[in-house]
Amino acid sequence: MKKVILLALAVVASASFCTVDAKKKKKKEVEAAPVVLPVELKSSSDSVSYAAGMSITNGLLPFLKQQHGIDTAQIAIFLKSFEETIKAGDNPEAKARIAGVEIANQVKTRMIPGITNEFKDTPDSIEADLLYRGFTDALKQDTTHFKVADAETYFKQKQEADKKAKEEKLWGPNRRAGEQFLKENATKDSVITTASGLQYKVLVKGEGQVPQMTDKVQVNYEGRLIDGTVFDASAKHGDKPAEFRPDQVIKGWTEALTMMPVGSKWQLYIPQQLAYGERNTGSIKPYSALIFDVELVSIVGDKAEEPAKAAPVKAKGKKPARKGKK
Fold first, then answer.
1. How far is 148 from 306, CA to CA, in rounded Å?
2. Using CA of residue 249, residue 252, residue 254, residue 260, what is the dihedral sign?
3. What angle (nearest 5°) sits at the alpha carbon of residue 198, between those of residues 193 and 199?
4. Tens of pLDDT along 89-128?
5. Closest listed residue to residue 171, CA positions, set 270, 279, 289, 286
6. CA separation for the pair 309, 240 (Å, rounded)
7. Are 64 and 78 in contact (CB under 8 A)?
């Protein structure tokens, strides 16, 4: 019985201490809470300033949720960091901490995903932890494995080699199919091959003037892949010929147009390096050899100083044989 009473007293004492401790913690938390003074707007400038602060938060919550995964449950933490940053002013240590957070977020959310995707399906892959370590070691001037310049050179070499390996894996068969087609096509009657590798066959011999680079020309055309698939034609864009200058189109067209007399109709067989090369332009896969039937209707004139009319749009919004950005 005595033991039971002692045990009960111990439990009660323990509970009392816990209650007191909890009250002390709560009191400390209350005491630590910052005092927020009421805002007094005493002038028009005060009101404008306050309203400006409120107005620039428009759309901030959706942005924080979308870009940073922050919802209303974390707003108090966000505000604490915001206020600390504002109060830090020009304090070098505070600025360094802020910069560290900003750069870390950029590396984590922008650079890592981009580099990781670039090396996807290549012989190498990106390990995030080692990338972070390389980043910090460079700033600490730790040259155990690389000097910064050597690391940059090595990375660029691997980047280029892996890009080529990836492209060969994805598009090598398409490139080789084009090369084989052109090799066989070059042996056919009436097919002429130029020094650049462009092949053409004269279907109709014109007797007119040969365009210069900056002459605006009118052209009817049809473009096909080597399997016969039509990917574009001037007839798809109305009953008028397309208009542009020879210096505005892919290299194969430029070369052909500056050799064709007006009234000519040629069939062009264009190697990938004179067409779109590594670019993926909708229905035209990278490294595709192309076939075009091209009729040079007329020369409008030398319009180098004026913007040329847009060439007809290809399938999926691309221009049929115009130069494009890589």
1. 49
2. negative
3. 50
4. 888 988 898 899 999 999 999 999 999 999 999 999 999 9
5. 286
6. 13
7. yes
